[in-house]
């Protein structure tokens, strides 16, 4: 039952909102900063809708992020090196990979948000620093 509600609300926030006129989906182009802002906003809405923001402390989100990194690593565990584009992977494994990569990105963005940091700007600054 809980899982059904979760799925419904998940698509309410991440799916339905996606096709409203103000969404990024209907803009021709958007900057990285705009995209990251939009994702952060949706994550905050997603948590608020369920009253989960009280659990989304920096420490909890950081631990959730680490957990998802573990899940992401698990897919490649014992598989050996793989070619770019994953030509020999099954559709199921690729789908799982997409989900786990998304979970990592979303928790990363959410943790930056609750720290009060602008991750989009920090990323751009870091890329310049790296160069
Ligand atoms: N308290 C929570 C729990 C989940 N999520 C969101 C962020 C992630 O994108 C996704 C993670 O959900 P799960 O913890 O259910 O992890 P998985 O989707 O990986 O499921 P499972 O661990 O069963 O494979 O849901 C969240 O924002 N806050």
> What radius of gyration results from the CA coordinates?
17 Å
H/E topology pattern: HHHHH
**Poorly predicted runs of 5 or more residues:** 1-22
Structural class: mainly alpha
CATH homologous superfamily designation: MazG-like
Strand fraction equals under 5%
- CATH class group: Mainly Alpha
Amino- and carboxy-terminal Cα gap? 50 Å
Q: Say how many strands there are.
A: 0
What's the mean pLDDT score?
82
What is the total number of structural domains? 1
Largest sheet features: none
**In CATH terms, what is the architecture?**
Orthogonal Bundle
The 3D shape can be described as globular
EC number: 3.6.1.12
Enzyme class: hydrolase
Domain NTP pyrophosphohydrolase MazG-like: 57-122
GO molecular function, one term: magnesium ion binding
């Amino acid at each position: 039952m809980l899982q059904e509600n979760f799925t419904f609300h998940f698509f309410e926030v991440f799916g339905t909102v996606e096709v409203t006129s103000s969404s990024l989906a209907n803009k021709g182009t958007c900057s990285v900063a705009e995209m990251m802002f939009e994702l952060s906003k949706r994550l905050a809405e997603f948590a608020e809708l369920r009253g989960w923001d009280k659990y989304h402390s920096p420490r909890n989100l950081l631990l959730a992020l680490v957990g998802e990194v573990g899940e992401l690593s698990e897919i490649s565990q014992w598989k050996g090196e793989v070619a770019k584009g994953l030509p020999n992977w099954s559709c199921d494994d690729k789908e799982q990979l997409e989900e786990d990569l998304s979970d990592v990105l979303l928790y990363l963005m959410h943790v930056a948000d609750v720290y009060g940091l602008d991750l989009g700007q920090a990323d751009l600054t870091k890329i310049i620093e790296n160069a």
